[in-house]
Amino acid sequence: MDRVVIVGNVDVDIIAGPIDDWPEWGTEMGVDTVDIRIGGQAANTAVVLADLGVPVDIVTVAGNDLFGKALKQRFVEMGISVDWFDLIEGKTPHTVAITHTNSERSFLSDESVMRFMDVDFVSGKLARIKGAHILFCGINVLNGLRRGDLKALLESLHDDNLIYLDPGWPPDG
């Protein structure tokens, strides 16, 4: 088993900071840096594995917009298989992360097209997969998987695959 399949969220991360305190409403605050990069637990994991030379597939969705197309193209350039990465009508998710001077972070995220990432979508993509390591990432932000019959999906994939689960942060923060 040398194939790794990552199932989960991708988004565009916008990271700003550091700051000591939140600005007052209706004001603007300057920061030292604002970075834009690939984000989401599944995306970050796939990128690291690809950098290590591990064959990796990603099962996910993004919007059929500039950001979704750019993410998918960048994954191809990095050697990540995007056969199960669907661009669908809608907006690619974004997360804004604000960093504190003590290195803590706060996140503001939108779900957008990730709501289509449900049990039916994933089971349709992985119906015939055998002999893989399958990692589910970011379940905390994938309401379609949390609300669906995730347990039945995981059990259906258990034969001839190794299943891993990274639940992420609790859904309430």
Automatic annotation (TrEMBL):
Keyword Kinase included in the entry's annotation: yes
Kinase recorded as keyword: yes
Keywords assigned: Kinase, Transferase
Carbohydrate kinase PfkB domain span: 3-120
Pfam family membership, one: PfkB
MF annotations from Gene Ontology: kinase activity
InterPro entries hit by this protein: Carboh/pur_kinase_PfkB_CS, PfkB_dom, Ribokinase-like
Domain of life: Bacteria
Name of the featured protein: Carbohydrate kinase family protein
Organism: Mesotoga infera
